Amino acid sequence: MLEIGSVVDGKYKILNRIGQGGMSIVYLAMNEKANKQWAVKEVRRDGTRNFEMIRQGLMAETDLLKKLHHPNLPSIVDVIEGDGTFLIVMDYIEGKTLARILMESGAQSQETVTEWARQLCDVLGYLHSRKPPVVYRDMKPSNIMLRPDGRVILIDFGTAREYKEGGSTDTVCLGTRGYAAPEQYGGQGQTDERTDIYSLGATMYHLLTGHNPCEPPYEMYPVRHWRKYLSSGLESIVLKCTQKNPLDRYQSCGELLYDLEHYQELETEYKKRQSLQWRCFLAAGTAALAAWAGAAWFQNAEKQLTYSTSQWYLEEGDFLAATEPEQAVECYENAVKLNPSSRAGYEALLNFFLWQNNEKEESGEVFFCVFSDAEEKEMRKILGITGDSGRSNEEFLRQKEEEYRKFAYELGLAYFYSYEGTGNKAASRKWLKIAAEGETSDLLHKGDLDRAKSLYKIADYYDSLGIRNQAGDSKASYWEYWQDLWEVTKDAREGGDHRMLLLSCKELAGQIAARASDFKRAGISSREMETQLQKNREAVEMMEIARESANAEYEEELRQTVLQNFQMAEETFRAVYNTGNLRQ
Predict the structure, then answer these.
(1) Number of Cα atoms under 13 Å in the Cβ half of residue 449
(2) Residue 355: half-sphere exposure toward Cβ, Cα within 13 Å
(3) Does domain 7-91 have CATH number 3.30.200.20?
């Protein structure tokens, strides 16, 4: 067993143990020279049966992965053999397996599952297009990792094989019963691309229904047997994927991907509407003129009633926010359900989570402007399906492009600055990108768009800072990173937005405290760093907080914290630059 703190091969420092399987232990390691974390899988000869056979299997797995390059696959960077040990150094993937997500929150929304399935189709299609094709053979939720940025990663290639043309059967029966296709049980044909399609269908079944095909009743019913409101189109896709006869399944991932992207068009209701369309056309045309005036009146009246009721829910939520937080959340969510194409309900709920639903600990510390994990889950839930339409609320909101981009901007800021108190840059990227890609409007001004673009660029750095390519060149520049950081604070100072100034200064101070040595190596002078700290400190100190404002208490607490952070940042960078009198 590797010792915590030991250094492997002169460059991988073992930080802690992060997982253990039947024959291996996985550690988190740091390559301190490259400032990059890796996962190290260790298999030891001691206590391991058939070590040589396992070693050969691992060598085959690593040799296979080394030839593959895809965003949804891990990379193998090193294989180290020692006395009685076999080590594989690979990408460290932050996140949770889909099995863990199922265990924690149960069945997932059809939009979420469809998005994951599209990504998995893409990576399986890549594997199947290799020469010779690579058949994965063990698709299941525990072999799929979900990263914070929403990307899924296919892990554990221990059962993958290269397709052998002309073979009649596989030599070994591998795969996980319940997810494995019939041909994987041996003697029933050779596994091929359609084997992976079966396993993907079984995985989708588990994710959509919450019922594990490995457990009783050991049968995959149509998914709407468990959740009646699921799309019949999606149900037909899962059924086709999991046919026992490979000829009855999708014959390629391309076919499956097309149907996943158009699953709503496969719905039985859609087909019925299409078949009735021509027969109804003549009758509808005759009745249209007579009904037009009355229909217009009723439609307008219905819209007015919906708007008035949703406004009442918003006002009631604001009234209850300070005293009955749970009822306030219910009011905001009801406003969304009534009028899902308006951003008002979503923004009211987000604002409540950020500024009002924050409590003090016994120590008296205020958790201001925190977007907690539970709140984030609630926000994702309300963006999903909440009615009988089969469509997500996000789809309705997307119909009004300006409103959608405005909400995306606010949600992106919440993820960037406030998620769990420190921010989740990876999770913010989707929303900041949506906001940044549009034109200026009454809802998003030029300054907002510039800020969204800068923050998206900063968030993008977090995947590549400190990573070097094979030539040893850094993939991201700390000098550019610094320029973007202070540009955001400069815009906030000039824009007069207290919230943005406090949050951007908090981020700047935190990054100086954490990365001062990186900025120094990138050529940022001590004078420039001192100048930026001084400008922003003065702006925060001179800020006038309106005492009658609903957020006055939180803004004041945040200001005091930011000033403390500036002090810690100054102490750090003075130590890094090794000077004590920069102002003289």
Answers:
(1) 13
(2) 17
(3) yes
Dihedral (Cα; 421, 427, 428, 429), 10-degree rounding: 150
| Among candidate residues 163, 121, 176, 144, the one with its CA nearest the CA of residue 74 | 144
Nearest to 489 by CA among 530, 454, 440, 445: 454
**Tokens read off for 498:** 């207290």
**ω into residue 216 within 30 of 0, thus cis?**
no
Among the residues of 437-548, which ranges form H helices?
A: 446-461, 478-495, 498-521, 526-541
Q: Where are the alpha helices (DSSP H) in 152-267?
A: 193-209, 232-241, 253-261
Long-range contacts, 255-263 (Cβ 8 Å, 24+): 256/121, 256/197, 256/200, 257/118, 257/121, 257/122, 257/125, 259/233, 260/114, 260/117, 260/118, 260/121, 261/118, 262/233, 263/114, 263/231, 263/233, 263/234, 263/237
| Three-class SS state of 529 | helix
Predicted TM-score (pTM) of this structure: 0.47
Up-side HSE of residue 282: CA atoms within 13 Å toward CB?
2
Contacts of 29 (CB under 8 A, 6+ apart): 8, 12, 13, 14, 15, 37, 38, 39, 40, 89, 92
Contact between residue 128 and residue 119 where contact means Cβ atoms under 8 Å apart: no
Burial of 559: CB neighbours in 10 Å, binned 0-12, 13-18, 19+:
buried
Output the CA torsion 495→496→499→502 (10° steps).
90
**Can you state the angle between helices 552-577 and 526-541, rounded to 10 degrees?**
160
Tens-binned pLDDT, residue by residue, of the chain (584 aa): 788 999 988 888 999 998 776 667 889 999 877 778 898 888 876 655 666 666 676 777 677 777 888 889 888 888 888 777 888 888 888 889 999 999 999 999 999 999 999 999 999 998 988 888 888 888 999 889 999 989 999 987 655 555 445 443 443 445 678 888 888 775 555 788 999 999 999 999 999 999 999 887 778 999 999 998 899 899 999 999 999 999 999 999 999 999 999 888 887 655 555 444 434 444 454 445 444 444 444 445 445 555 567 787 888 888 787 778 888 888 888 888 888 888 999 999 988 888 776 654 444 444 456 788 888 888 888 888 665 566 788 888 888 999 999 999 999 888 888 887 777 877 888 898 999 888 888 888 888 888 888 888 877 776 565 544 444 444 457 888 888 888 888 888 887 777 788 888 888 888 888 888 888 888 888 888 888 888 888 888 888 776 655 566 767 877 888 888 888 888 888 888 875 444 43
> How far is it, in rounded angstroms, from Cα 87 to Cα 44?
9
Domains in the chain: boundaries: 7-91, 96-266, 489-584
Q: What distance, in Å, lies between the first and last C-alpha atoms of the chain?
A: 54
Which CATH architecture describes the domain 96-266? Answer: Orthogonal Bundle (1.10)
